Amino acid sequence: MSAPGAGPPRRILPVLDGIAYGSDYNPEQWPESTWAQDIELMTAAGVNLVTVGVFSWSRLQPAPGELTAGWLDKVLDLLAGAGIWVDLATATASPPPWLVAAHPEILPVTVDGNRLAFGARQSYCPSAPAFRTAAADLAERMARRYGSHPAVAMWHIGNEYGCHVPACYCERSAAAFRDWLRARYGEIGALNDAWGGAVWSQDYTDWEQIEPPRTAPTFANPAHQLDFARFSSDELLACYRAERAVLTEHSPGKPVTTNFIGMFRSLDQFKWSAEMDVVSVDSYPDPADAEAHVASAMAYDLTRSVKTGRPWLLMEQAPSAVNWRSVNVPKAPGQYRALSLQAVARGSDAVLSFQWRAAATGAEKFHSGMLPHAGTDSRVWRDVVSLGSDLRRLAPVAGSLVHTEAALLLDWESWWALELDSHPTSRLRLTDLLGEIYRPLLQAGVTADFVHPESDLSGYRLVVVPALYLVSDAGAGNVARFVADGGTALVTFFSGIVDPRDRVRLGGYPAPWRDLLGLRVEELAPLPEGEAIRLEGLDAAPEQAAGRLWQDVIDLRGASVLLTFAEGYLAGEAAATRHAHGRGEAMYLGTLPDRVTLSRLIGRACRQAGVEARTDLPPGVEAVRRGEFLFLISHLDRPVEIDLGAKHHDLLTWTMVGPQAVLAPRDALVLAREPREAGSGPPPSPSG
Ligand code: GAL
Ligand code: ZN
């Protein structure tokens, strides 16, 4: 948890003195004659940071050996001359045709055993030695040549690791998996024990018998699948690490990142972030979704959390439409701005897009760019320029920390195990459940961190445990201690079910938390699609209160009842409970209540925890405190009135607003606690 404005500001990049603005810049897709205009327009828009070279391997190294990179030297010089910093890619995200032709074994293999063809992007097996060697070689040439170029502010390794190929099932990956397993278990008996080899005749007698969990006659062994998920995240991380080592050696002192995908199941971001100087994320909520801002808020909170609250970079978003959905709706007027300000509110010190100039060729030509096909006489361009000036006004926000009092526990190992097959229901998906819990918190202006179960929880007042299916003894003890010490926990169904080997903890669920919760779940009773069970109780919605997705058969052992099932064979039995434990309280949800009921229960948990939960925010308006500023952002397409309580200085307009204020459609206020002096000076630039 971070107190408002606590500690000295922490900049993501020492060279930047405000919120960075820019995009991916792919000048190699355009004739050199356009570059001068690019620079001129970037300057007009206030762009001061661009990511260069992410997919440039074939243009930088058209054959093994020396870089033919004269074009990149020119581009970097032009950018430096204009005072625009560069996040320089190692350019290893997509291997070029010559490498694939020489080493066809680097092409990845799917779970069904199909080798994926060249012709799209990111076609590599993370375990392939030929890929790793070539990538490290390119990274070294890039670092040696550009490591001290005055434009280069930071390094960008790979791109969205795991996006298209989260795991490879080829023979080389199989061998690497065996090595990984040997290191984890030491001897084969330990592996058989961990995987439950006695079930379905799976006791291995030699490491060589073990394959990746490819498509099999029926459900593959879940512990085998879980280890393969761990291995696959580690294997991609090894690729990243190898390049990072090269950069550290040949370009010391420059921050290194790679761009995450937000709520993405394949990479253990807690583990990855330890290897990153600054974390960054790509964010593409669907503009056609009325709750796009909920999805992006959650991803932004996650990104901040994986680097324990430190400022981060919004590396990519679309200025308007993307090209990769079946229907690609443009962003509504004001939506690019509102979602950008949302990122800043939630801790980002950069607002970058994909990409600068909308492409004229290739697979992404109908993806929006900051400079659209239509040119500068366009809505998108005008919005791009005006956001640039908004962000300059937000310079005082940079480096400050987001105020949070609530934590949502998240562990990738549990996520992997939770969503394996042969479970009580295949309808329980972690991102969906997190969204259900996150929505009412957002609505109440409660900003939450995502926290690993074994992390220090003492700074939080409220800890939510959403379907934390797998938990270690240490994680389980940590939650119980948090409550005993006076915290409030809200635990949902299907938590604390197995240990890190995916072995059921016996004696009634959730075994490690039965005392904490004052109950024992005897049986798991998921609900079929479309079925809902009426709920009753103090917090039940006045109309149509119902449980969805899941029912626990709860045997009370000291807990008191908050909600009961009102129909079906569990009629009259507990559906939600509370239980005092030590100096705190633990609530339990044995079903997924309808949204109104759930939001009342979360309101109760906040009150119990002493977390301020607002009830005055119109749905679709968010409130986030960062440093000494309160961000109020509307994602609505109609004006709304807000009571600010008093007059405040708004950083975006440099005017006093309130106590009553009207937020125009998708408009925002950034309110300072104290009145501010105008002008904090221009940020430094690479040209000095
Ligand atoms: C991202 C990717 C970018 C671009 C973008 C388009 O996944 O990192 O390179 O393709 O999608 O939305
Ligand atoms: Zn492979």
Give the termini separation. Answer: 37 Å
The structure class reads alpha/beta
Bound molecules: beta-D-galactopyranose, zinc ion
Q: Can you summarize the main beta sheet?
A: 10 strands, mixed
> On the 0-100 scale, what is the average pLDDT?
96
| Basic shape | globular
User: How many strand elements?
Assistant: 28
Q: Tally the helices: what do you get?
A: 17
Strand order of the largest sheet: 11-10-12-13-20-19-18-15-16-21
What do you see in this structure?
The protein is of the alpha/beta class and 688 residues long. Helices cover 29% and strands 19% of the residues. Helix 11 links the parallel strand 8 and strand 9 (348-353). The two termini are 37 Å apart. Residues 1-8 and 679-684 have low confidence and may be disordered. Bound molecules: beta-D-galactopyranose (GAL) and zinc ion.
